[in-house]
Amino acid sequence: MRLAPSLTLAFMLCARVASADPPGASSGPASGFAAASPFTPRGDLAWRRALRAARAANIARLRAYVTRGQYPRNHDTPPSVRRFVDSEGRHCAMADMIARSGHEDLVAETARTRNDVALGAVFEGPLYEWIVTSGLTHAEVAFVQEPDSFIDLDSPEEARREAEATEDARLRAHFLEAIAQLERNTRPSLAAAFGELGLRRIEAPPTPHSPRRTPPRRGL
Questions:
Q1: Distance CA 45, CA 210 (A)
Q2: Do 83 and 148 meet the contact criterion of CB atoms below 8 Å apart?
C-alpha cells in the first residue's frame, strides 16, 4: 500500500526530528551527569583505599597508646570528665591518635580552646574533617574517647596510688575492648565511614593518616 504524499512527508519529518540531537548537544561523546559526575568508580576506589589505610594506622596508634600506658589524670572534676590534654601534658587516646597522624597543631589548639570537647558532638571544623577522613566512624571515635575518673590529690598517698592503678586498669581494659571492636567491625565501619564523606568525595583523598614523628611530649 502506498502512502499519500502528505503522510509520507510527515513521516519523514518526524523521523528526522526524533533522530536529531537536542539543542546544545555536540556530536562527540555523550554528555550528562553520568559522564561529568566526580563520583567516579576510580575516585571512589581511591577514597576507600585511603580510609582503609587511615583506619589501620589509627588502630595501630591506639594499640601503641595502650602499651605506653600514659593516660591523663583528672584531679579537679568529679566524678569524671573528658580532657583532651591534662595539666601535665598527657594526651587522651583520641588526642594522641590525632597528634601522631601529623596534626599536633590541631591537638594544641583544641586543648587551648576546647579541652573538654566531646568528639561525638563535633559536626564541623577541623576536628570533624579529621574524623570523617580517619577511617573510623563518628560513633567509634566517640567510644574511644573515654572520660577520666576523678582522683583526689588530697587523699592519702597510698589511697591515691591505688586509685591511679585502678583507673589505669579501667582505661586499659576500655581501650583494648575498643581495639577489638574496631578490628572486628572493619568492613561495615569502612562502608559507614565512606558514606559519611558526602560531597568530600568530589576531591581527591588527602594524604593518608600516615605515621609521623612528633616531638617528645612532657609527661611521656
A1: 18
A2: yes
In one letter, which amino acid is 135?
G
Q: What is the pLDDT of residues 87-129, one digit of tens each?
A: 999 999 999 999 999 999 999 999 999 999 999 999 999 999 9
Q: What are the backbone dihedrals phi and psi of residue 94, each rounded to the nearest 5 degrees, phi first? A: -75, -40
Q: Confirm whether pTM is higher than 0.85.
A: no
Q: In this structure, what C-alpha cell is assigned to residue 68?
A: 605506653
**Residues 47, 196: Cα–Cα separation, whole Å:** 12
Residue 113 cell numbers, joined:
580552646
Q: Which residues of 120-138 are buried (b: 16+ CB within 10 A; e: fewer)?
A: eebeeeebeebbbbbbbbb
**pLDDT tops 70 at residue 12:** no
Strands of the chain, DSSP E: 80-81, 148-149
Phi, psi of 211 (to 5 degrees): -60, 145
- Characterize 88-107 residue by residue with b for buried, 16 or more Cβ atoms within 10 angstroms of its Cβ, and e for exposed: eebbbbbbbbbbbbbbbebb
> Residues 55, 110, 175, CA angle at the centre, nearest 5°?
40
